[in-house]
Amino acid sequence: MNLYRMLAARAEADRPVRVGLIGAGKFGSMFLAQARLVPGFHVMGVADLDPARARTALATTGWPPEQVDTGSFAAALETGRTFVTDDAEKLISAEGLDVVIDATGHPRAGVRHARLCVRQGRHLVMVNVEADALVGPLLAREAEAAGLVYSLAYGDQPALICEMVDWARACGFPVIAAGKGTKYLPEYHASTPETVWGTYGLTPERAAAGGMNPQMFNSFLDGTKSAIEMAAVANATGLTPAPDGLAFPPVGMDDLAQALRPAVEGGALHHKGQVEVVSCLARDGSPVPHDLRWGVYVVFEAPSDYAATCFAEYGLPIDSSGRYTAMYKPYHLIGLELGISVASAALRGEATGAATGFRGDAVAVAKRDLAPGEVLDGEGGWTVWGRLMPATDSIAKAALPIGLAQGVKVTRAVAEGQVLSAADVTLDEADDGVRARRDMVAAFGRAGAQAAE
Questions:
Q1: Domain for residue 64, yes or no?
Q2: Please, what is the end-to-end C-alpha distance for the chain in angstroms?
Q3: In a domain, 130, yes or no
Q4: Under a CB-based contact definition with an 8 Å cutoff, are residues 360 and 391 in contact?
Q5: Can you tell me the distance from the alpha carbon of 233 to that of 296, in angstroms, rounded to the nearest whole number?
Q6: How far apart are CA 66 and CA 303, in angstroms?
Q7: Could you tell me the residue range of the domain that residue 405 belongs to?
Q8: Which of 236, 326, 351, 452 could be joined to 151 by an S-S link, Cβ 3.0–4.6 Å?
Q9: What distance lies between CA 274 and its chain's CA centroid?
Q10: Cβ neighbourhood burial of 116 (10 Å; 0-12, 13-18, 19+)
């Protein structure tokens, strides 16, 4: 409740929180739009493989030309301006930097940046949930051991879900389910970047004007992003996936408490304490009333008859038993809210969500029959989609994480709908992501995943 006061005090003392942003895409641009308006923030540098894109992002989000590109990080530190570079490692190493934001969306890059942050003593806000789903438990442990904050990104749905789960538990309410909404039909698993915009609900022109990457946004539609984000939530909260992954039940805001109960009580859940994503579409394609497509929710239980009575007295949406209810946030502002994570890390030393164990995994499933020699194109592409799986099952099956399903060659035929294993592709053992994944499985392993549950 006091982040703004703390930031204002830093501004008054001329000791701003110095921030480095890696990745000037949509999420990064949304952060830039607000960061220049927050007292106590100094965006010291922006790193992007295409510096022109970074400069365009700064200009588009209202940064005056005289604020940008001073010639060096040292000059930026001295003058309060913002240096643009294509070298993320130099940004992370820049003297005076407090917090790094990884908004690249590339899991291997995220692993590399996280470990550089540990070496350089920087807090890290991992917008790159792809990296977090791949090896977040390991990265969070390494940062903690170094006395640093590793954090999910506030404004993105996983961190907002973590906040709601924490709120419920801090109030003494057992959490039954938590998750988010999306637009889902089973046939969307076959969606490609060529078909995404019509199904998503945007014209190609509007998407291009908004700087939206069709492959990245296709991952929201084909189920991959939901799997990745719910793996992150499971690993951060202790909630767990159902054995078959996400079911995407069509549920509106008014019906969360009734629908998201265990199946033995007439609901759609496999068990209490589950992550789940609800769809804004019924299976026939018709809209769900009062849908939660853009929001997040938590379903929790009255621990006593007295609490259940209070639920009813204060107008909460309750199920037919009167013991389950739900809270929800119908929208999220993505990068516009990201400064909360930056301020929390720098000023409180706290993450807005971080992995505490390996409970959920996002694994690659063939979108079509795959032949030996084909190269996988990763999240949101033409070849695979990501499915949520309990970590114990993923480890037992040696399933291929969706975060490693990019740029690797298929070694044997894989049927449409089949979960790929690591043996189905050729992995580069020297690759940062591959090595970190092996480190994480060794550190947490099957027994570690079970203990985390």
A1: yes
A2: 31
A3: yes
A4: yes
A5: 12
A6: 58
A7: 360-452
A8: 351
A9: 17
A10: middle
CATH number at residue 7: 3.40.50.720
Q: Which helix (H) or strand (E) holds 345?
A: none
**Is 417 strand, coil or helix?**
coil
| pLDDT recorded at residue 451 | 40
Q: pTM higher than 0.90 for the full model? A: yes
- Residues forming beta bridges with residue 100, ordered by sequence position: 20, 124
Calculate what percentage of the chain has a pLDDT beyond 90. 92
Helices (H), strands (E): how many in the chain?
Answer: 17, 14
**Are residue 251 and residue 126 in the same domain, yes or no?**
no
- The count of structural domains within the chain is 3
Is residue 195 in a domain?
A: no
- CATH number of the domain encompassing residue 397: 3.90.1210.10
Residue 335 neighbours by CB distance under 10 Å: 26
Q: Is 209 exposed, middle or buried (0-12, 13-18, 19+ CB in 10 A)?
A: exposed
Q: How do residues 106-129 score in pLDDT, each as one tens digit?
A: 999 999 999 999 999 999 999 999
**CB within 8 Å of 325: residues ≥ 6 apart:** 257, 299, 300, 302, 311, 316, 317, 318, 319
Q: For residue 284, how many other CB atoms are within 10 A of its CB?
A: 7
Same domain, 327 and 296: yes
Same domain, yes or no, for 150 and 20? yes
Reported residue count of the chain is 453
Neighbours of 392 (CB within 10 A): 21
Q: Are residues 254 and 318 in the same domain?
A: yes
Position of tokens 């690659």?
A: 364
- At position 453, the amino acid (one-letter code) is E
The answer to whether 165 touches 158, Cβ cutoff 8 Å, is no
Residue 64, both tokens: 């005056």
Report d(CA 58, CA 60) in Å as an integer: 6
> What is the predicted pLDDT for the residue at 113?
98
Whether 293 and 228 map to the same domain: the answer is: yes
Regarding whether 141 and 21 lie in a shared domain, the answer is yes
Query: Hey, what are 276's tokens?
Result: 């789940």
pLDDT beneath 70, residues of the chain = 446-453
Residue 295 falls within a domain, yes or no? yes
Tokens in use for 350? 């706290």
Same domain membership, residue 268 and residue 227: yes
